[in-house]
Backbone:
């Protein structure tokens, strides 16, 4: 057995390198085969557990929005409160909670930040950056094609979910 403050790996643990039983499930795409070879049962703070009680440090923070830890009681209570308010939060449409969140975020930010963009994905962030470039170009009497020649895109596995992102990735201005 391996036992530390943040890990517990039982002697009978066997890493299933085949994963045909759990990843992907029979209901999911075969493209999910790159997932971790462990079936998560629960997660608390920065640890994940399987059904047999094995415990690992969760190093996947880039996948989930868990910077506050899994099952954080403060976050859980805020989610419950929002669910009970009869209004699911929308990052796109005007709501009081969105306005309050934007103000709170700016209040906690350095003074040179004047505005925020509340978005949901990397594609949306690319879209808003592209739109900001176009707005700046118009305001400064620049052609969009001359400005976007200076845009640097890093290729990644992130999905392209919009025409604006596709324009930037392909370097085409339609």
Residues:
């Amino acid at each position: 057995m391996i036992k530390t403050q943040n890990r517990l790996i039982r002697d009978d643990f066997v890493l299933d390198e085949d994963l045909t039983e759990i990843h992907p499930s029979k209901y999911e795409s075969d493209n999910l085969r790159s997932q971790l070879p462990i079936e998560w049962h629960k997660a608390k703070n920065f640890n994940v557990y399987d059904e047999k009680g094995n415990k690992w440090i969760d190093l996947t923070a880039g996948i989930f929005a868990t910077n506050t830890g899994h099952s954080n009681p403060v976050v859980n209570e805020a989610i419950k409160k929002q669910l009970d308010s009869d209004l699911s939060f929308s990052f796109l449409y005007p709501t009081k909670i969105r306005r309050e969140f934007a103000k709170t975020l700016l209040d906690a930010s350095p003074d040179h930040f004047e505005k925020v963009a509340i978005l949901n994905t990397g594609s949306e962030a690319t879209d808003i950056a592209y739109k900001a470039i176009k707005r700046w170009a118009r305001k400064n009497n620049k052609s969009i094609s001359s400005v976007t020649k200076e845009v640097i895109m890093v290729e990644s596995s992130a999905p392209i979910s919009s025409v604006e992102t596709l324009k930037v990735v392909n370097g085409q201005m339609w």
